[in-house]
């Protein structure tokens, strides 16, 4: 186990929130076809409020801090926030579309010793990328920014969300990342919009296509391990739990709402009403998340994939129960290994059913 | 005898986890965890207190260690961390790195 993995396990065991994802805005200059967010500002935290939250997060033991959105640079105070975070010695990662990053911004991010910049890029073809973002010339601006950031010596990762609109382009994006000298990551997860509109789910990559993605050594280097049949489940496995959401990780929205994860829309408190640590230590919702062991999972505890599945409790929650299966992950486990999941077997299915409709993050009603 | 002054680099990320310091250097993503003794030295690295004083006042006071051995270990630890850019070392008092 690496030193970092050891520290992560220690934080998990001690219940220390070592990692936080903070969306500073839901506003965005792009209108991506698959995006689940409501881009109108419904009362974002002010600069002072966010700085106050950062102070609390540092006191609570948070080490890894991800700034995301929306588009983070839509906030004019963004550098002020990063500067404050770095003064507090967080390890800072920024997720952005990079459209507003020029040479000056790249230099400033370098000077602030930001750890990683993750940039969304959907295709190596400008017309496909721009059609997804609905922002003309966004491909050109994003790639230009990647060069500025790379030239500053910053660690850049291209995040390639995979959907029907760009299904055949991941080879091209991967090659572009290699040509640019930056990292590449692929994500086939598409979630419904915040208002409950599930029409974006039509953009999901069909399950059969995942087989090709998962068995492609260029995309998944450790083929033998990744696609291996599941190992037998032990008693120890049943007493454990693998996801850090709510255990050593949480998500905070631009409105101060706290959730176990950005993909786990269980409202657990609001930092405008309570201290972060009070929420972390006393929220009944987070306590419930932490109480779940693998043996408590209604279907998955009897599944052969239990130890190797990427089961997301947030997606399971969106399907109806944090203890239930996540159909999207059942699908991945099946297409990865060819071995049916317990969820499929109980329904008599020979191949996964298309993923169920999900419920998305909603702001918490704040009492008057 | 010249003194050694040490200061924490502002280029790194750091946080205590259960009494031990996690440190990450953003330049090369090197990740360190410091044990309790090393954490004590790191936290006392204010650029103004000589290393010899840190060992005498902090390390020897808080931990059951031989002073000479503690000084030698501290010097080795400081050399290692300064090699990774995590600690700044000088024979003159240091102020924090400008950002």
Your description of this structure?
- The complex is a heterodimer of chains A (368) and B (99).
- With 368 residues, chain A is of the alpha/beta class.
- In chain A, 36% of the residues lie in helices and 11% in strands.
- A nine-stranded mixed sheet of chain A has the order 6-5-4-3-2-1-7-8-9, with helices on one face.
- Residues 357-368 of chain A have low confidence and may be disordered.
- Chain B is of the alpha+beta class.
- In chain B, the strands form two sheets. In chain B, strands 5-1-6 form a three-stranded antiparallel sheet. In chain B, strands 2-3-4 form a three-stranded antiparallel sheet.
- In chain B, strand 3 (20-25) and strand 4 (30-34) form a beta hairpin.
- In chain B, helix 1 (36-44) packs across helix 2 and helix 2 crosses helix 3.
- The mean pLDDT of chain B is 89.
- At the A-B interface, helix 1 and helix 3 of A face strand 2 and strand 4 of B.
Number of strands of chain A: 9
The ordered H/E elements of chain B are EEEEHEHHE
Query: Main sheet of chain A, how many strands, which sense, barrel?
Result: 9 strands, mixed
Strand content of chain B: 25-35%
CA radius of gyration of chain B is 13 Å
Report the oligomer.
heterodimer
Q: What is the ordering of alpha helices and beta strands of chain A?
A: HEHEHEHEHHEHEHHHEEEHHHHH
From the N-terminal CA to the C-terminal CA of chain A, the straight-line distance is: 48 Å
Helix content of chain A: 25-40%
Got a strand count of chain B? 6
Low-pLDDT residue intervals, each spanning 5 or more residues of chain B: none
Give the strand order, joined by hyphens, for the main sheet of chain A. Answer: 6-5-4-3-2-1-7-8-9
Radius of gyration of chain A: 20 Å
Mean pLDDT of chain A: 89
Number of H/I helices of chain B: 3
Distance between the termini of chain B: 32 Å
**Overall spatial form of chain B:** globular
Structural class of chain A comes to: alpha/beta
Low-confidence stretches of chain A: 357-368
Specify the structural class of chain B.
alpha+beta
Shape of chain A: globular
């Amino acid at each position: 186990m690496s030193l970092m993995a050891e520290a992560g396990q220690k934080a998990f065991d001690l219940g220390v929130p070592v990692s936080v994802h903070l969306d500073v805005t839901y506003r965005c200059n792009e209108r991506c076809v698959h995006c689940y967010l409501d881009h109108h500002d419904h009362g974002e935290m002010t600069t002072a409020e966010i700085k106050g939250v950062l102070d609390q997060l540092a006191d609570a033991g948070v080490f890894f801090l991800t700034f995301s959105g929306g588009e983070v640079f839509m906030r004019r105070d963004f550098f002020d926030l990063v500067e404050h975070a770095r003064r507090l010695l967080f390890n800072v990662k920024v997720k952005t579309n990079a459209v507003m990053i020029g040479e000056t911004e790249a230099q400033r991010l370098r000077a602030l010793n930001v750890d990683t910049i993750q940039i969304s890029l959907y295709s190596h073809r400008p017309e496909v990328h721009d059609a997804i973002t609905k922002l003309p010339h966004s491909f050109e601006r994003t790639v230009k920014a990647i060069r500025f950031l790379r030239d500053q010596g910053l660690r850049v990762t291209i995040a390639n969300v995979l959907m029907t609109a760009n299904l055949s382009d991941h080879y091209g994006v991967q090659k572009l990342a290699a040509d640019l000298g930056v990292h590449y990551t692929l994500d086939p997860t598409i979630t419904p919009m915040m208002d409950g509109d599930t029409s974006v789910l039509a953009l999901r990559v069909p399950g059969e296509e995942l087989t090709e993605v998962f068995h492609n050594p260029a995309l998944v280097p450790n083929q033998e391990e990744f696609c291996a049949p599941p190992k037998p489940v032990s008693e120890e496995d049943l007493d454990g739990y693998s996801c850090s959401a709510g255990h050593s990780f949480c998500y905070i929205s631009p409105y101060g709402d706290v959730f176990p994860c950005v993909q786990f829309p269980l409202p657990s408190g609001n930092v405008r009403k309570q201290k972060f640590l009070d929420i972390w230590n006393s929220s009944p919702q987070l306590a419930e998340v932490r109480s779940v062991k693998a043996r408590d999972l209604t279907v998955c505890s009897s599944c052969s994939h239990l130890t190797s599945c990427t089961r997301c409790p947030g997606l399971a929650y969106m399907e109806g129960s944090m203890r239930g299966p996540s159909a999207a992950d059942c699908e991945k486990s099946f297409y990865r290994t060819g071995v049916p999941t317990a969820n499929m077997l109980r329904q008599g299915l020979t191949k996964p059913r298309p993923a169920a409709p999900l419920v998305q993050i909603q702001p918490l009603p704040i009492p008057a | 005898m010249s003194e050694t002054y040490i200061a924490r680099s502002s280029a790194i990320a750091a946080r205590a986890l259960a009494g031990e310091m996690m440190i990450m250097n953003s330049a090369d993503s090197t990740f360190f965890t410091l044990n309790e003794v090393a954490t004590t030295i790191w936290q006392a690295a204010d650029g103004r207190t000589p290393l010899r004083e840190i060992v005498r006042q902090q390390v020897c006071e808080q931990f059951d260690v031989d002073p000479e051995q503690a000084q030698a270990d501290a010097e080795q630890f400081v050399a290692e961390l300064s090699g990774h850019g995590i600690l700044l070392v000088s024979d003159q008092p240091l102020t924090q790195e400008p950002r």
